[in-house]
Amino acid sequence: MGEKPGVCGNPLSRRAFLVACAPLAACARGRSEPPGPRPVALPLERFPSGLRVTVSVSGHPVEILRSASGVTARSLLCTHQGCEVSWSEVDGVYACPCHEGKFDAEGRPKEGPPPKPLATLPARIDGPLVLVGP
Ligand code: FES
Hints:
Layout: H1 14-21, E1 40-43, E2 52-57, E3 60-67, E4 70-75, E5 86-88, E6 93-95, E7 102-103, E8 109-111, E9 120-121, E10 123-126, E11 129-132
Antiparallel strand pairs: 1-11, 2-3, 3-4, 4-9, 5-6, 6-7, 7-8, 10-11
The protein binds FE2/S2 (inorganic) cluster.
C-alpha cells in the first residue's frame, strides 16, 4: 500500500488518507446535527494555540480551539434551527444571526431560543494532525 496524494500536496499514510477522506454521515441528518461519526484529519499547523479556527467538516462549520491542554472541536450549528453561530470576542458569546440566540464560551445556551448547548466533537492531536471525530 503506497501513499496517496495528500491534502495541500503533502503525502499521507494510508490510514491518514482514509481518515481524512472518509465521508461523514451528518449530511443525511438535519442541519442542526453535528458532523460525525468518522474522524477527519487536519494539519496541526493550521491551529495556532489560543486562536479559534473555523473549518468545514463535510460542509459543517466546526470551530477548532487549540490550547496547552489539547484541542477542542465545537459545532457552530445553532441547536435551535441550525443557523451558523459566530464567536464574538467583544461580547464573549457565540451569537446566532437567525433568532438572536446566544451561547456562552463553553457553548451553553445563554439567551434566546436555543434548547441545548452547541455540540462538541471528540478531538485530539495525533503527531502532525488534529483528528476530529471518534
Ligand atoms: S437558529 Fe439560532 S436562535 Fe434560532
